[in-house]
Amino acid sequence: xxxxxxxxxxxxxxxxxxxxxxxxxxxxxxxxxxxxxxxxxxxxxxxxxxxxxxxxxxxxxxxxxxxxxxxxxxxxxxxxxxxxxxxxxxxxxxxxxxxxxxxxxxxxxxxxxxxxxxxxxxxxxxxxxxxxxxxxxxxxxxxxxxxxxxxxxxxxxxxxxxxxxxxxxxxxxxxxxxxxxxxxxxxxxxxxxxxxxxxxxxxxxxxxxxxxxxxxxxxxxxxxxxxxxxxxxxxxxxxxxxxxxxxxxxxxxxxxxxxxxxxxxxxxxxxxxxxxxxxxxxxxxxxxxxxxxxxxxxxxxxxxxxxxxxxxxxxxxxxxxxxxxxxxxxxxxxxxxxxxxxxxxxxxxxxxxxxxxxxxxxxxxxxxxxxxxxxxxxxxxxxxxxxxxxxxxxxxxxxxxxxxxxxxxxxxxxxxxxxxxxxxxxxxxxxxxxxxxxxxxxxxxxxxxxxxxxxxxxxxxxxxxxxxxxxxxxxxxxxxxxxxxxxxxxxxxxxxxxxxxxxxxxxxxxxxxxxxxxxxxxxxxxxxxxxxxxxxxxxxxxxxxxxxxxxxxxxxxxxxxxxxxxxxxxxxxxxxxxxxxxxxxxxxxxxxxxxxxxxxxxxxxxxxxxxxxxxxxxxxxxxxxxxxxxxxxxxxxxxxxxxxxxxxxxxxxxxxxxxxxxxxxxxxxxxxxxxxxxxxxxxxxxxxxxxxxxxxxxxxxxxxxxxxxxxxxxxxxxxxxxxxxxxxxxxxxxxxxxxxxxxxxxxxxxxxxxxxxxxxxxxxxxxxxxxxxxxxxxxxxxxxxxxxxxxxxxxxxxxxxxxxxxxxxxxxxxxxxxxxxxxxxxxxxxxxxxxxxxxxxxxxxxxxxxxxxxxxxxxxxxxxxxxxxxxxxxxxxxxxxxxxxxxxxxxxxxxxxxxxxxxxxxxxxxxxxxxx
Length: 916
Prior knowledge:
mainly beta, Methylamine Dehydrogenase, Chain H, five-stranded antiparallel β-sheet, 68 strands, about 5% helix
């Protein structure tokens, strides 16, 4: 495209113009690859039949493509048989999923006539017919591993020997094959064989059966040619002699419980073009009870071995064992030389049973290496089941799946078990890519996923001129009412698409997006596409995006294809003769404080001073400030109205918080930008811009010391502030029943307050009060009460006399006979604060609370008996009478004139009289 520039002042040109082409067909590879999960074919069976327990493709030359699905708990038309099991035939078409049962065995339980008496000889109820289903050409093999039979009439029921049936020549003939139904039908022999528990066909049509219960669970593997089985079958005979049948034999007793034949697979191991068999017994084992199962895949030219261990325990990050499941990959480097590849494929869903089933898929992505599907039938958020698709390469399987298919049904009364059965490596819709069928017997479903054709693309990109002069206006762009001249750049690109079985014509859409301007163009291409046109050139050029669609199943772009190509076009700038702008950005950071306290709500103001001291502008210049976890960003401030307001955004990425501020585009040489940030501790900041040279400033750290500090105070008060003793009507007694019998009540209240700013998490408060003074009892502790999450203990029992409490005082004074002072000392010390940073000093202190005890004088009148008072009065009166009598006897009561006789008055001299 030609990309001209819109001549607007706000759209400054970038120094470097990156032009990219992004090619994609359908959804991205990280979500899904080429198995179509949007429109699968879903087959349904009878409720409770376990439809989907076993699945396989049926591709006969004379019959239409279809699938066969086992339902081992289905009821059939067999007389007197309950849940005998069935196999369903489901023809495939784009919009049809009808299924009908295949009548392998229409008969019920069989009887024999002995001594004119009928005896039942086999038992088909609950035999799980259809638990194993395999196909080869026009032949279908279906087995009932729990089928039982007996040969003697006195045995009420025999053991599960198992049996299988073959449908040959497109359902025109059915034959039974029960190799474990022999004369050795007892636990020592093949009585517990469960023949058909696993089964497979070799490439030339030989049947391979696994019977894990033979010979006290040593197990065995049995194989015979399909044609020999057909020729040996006679309907009235229970025991067959099949020509050419081979089987493993009983070995030493220490091989009991080996379960050989639990799963079987066939492949070429020796290099002699003769297929061998692999059984459950694996060459590597991490733990007992892991349930190892084997499957074979072709990664290179020889058969490789995959071993699943769905119940393997894996030790997690916390050291505990968890059941995750694992799949081991053995590469056959030479005949019979299996090499274990590392790392193993380990499940990620606890109890998901990763590795329960492994299915070779063939080459899904057409890269020359075969791929596999691995099930996790109990995985997913709702235990709906998962199927992982792993692509092969020269060294085995890639570590990460290219696609994860999630089941459509959540777990109900039982898990859906999506993925319990898997079959692949067959191209059902004949589009050249193998398909996959998945069974979910818990919901009686089977799902067919078809593969999309894969598109491989190549692209080329040419940009001219490579040096753009913004002053050259060589194009015209319509700007509403008029056309304006703009500068142009020519962009030419060529895209070609290749792939197996692609549609003849691919519909595509080209979208060019340059900031707010979009241009779309549609077209069609058979082999290659070439476009050349004009578009406006803006400051940022984004990739072009392609999508493709076709009729029917949509193709998808190969996720391994390089889908982005880039070319550069420089813009002629005022940066000297070399046209190279080399900005030199400097950054200084200052703060209004050197330390902050954890828990402090006061904001911190940081000043950032950014300047460009280099040559030319710095394009798309931005300031980045990485915030520490302890700080919260509050905003940008201006302490000078002449400063321009910056545009900043607060972002979080990978648990890292940072602030991004736009400093201009471009930030010209000599520009000085100053900004203030309020926050509340170690900040990292730097400048970034899009110039090719010197595009980052040095990281500037601002160290802010974070301090832990708490201001803790202890307050205390006494209620009442003094105590008078003894109280009124108080009696001394030795038998205390109530709190009032002890003495007056005293309450001490203590309050511990943290004024912050930091928090405290563990503080010890101790209270010491005297119980006695000078041998006299002073204080009787009654009880204590607290508020908040506080735990209190005492070295003395509270209320040890078990007095009846009618108030809530913490103590009672007792037996105070003189002037006492109750002095309690409370001390506190902070032991822990909830921070990784220790405080400089742990707060501590003390507080005294004093309660004076004042002695009350006794009331005498109330304490002297009445008779004593009366006697004292009488004695007083008697004493008064006696005193009067004595005075009388001494003449005390005889009266005399005050100045003598009259003669004596006359003789008085005037002076003497005057003096008198």
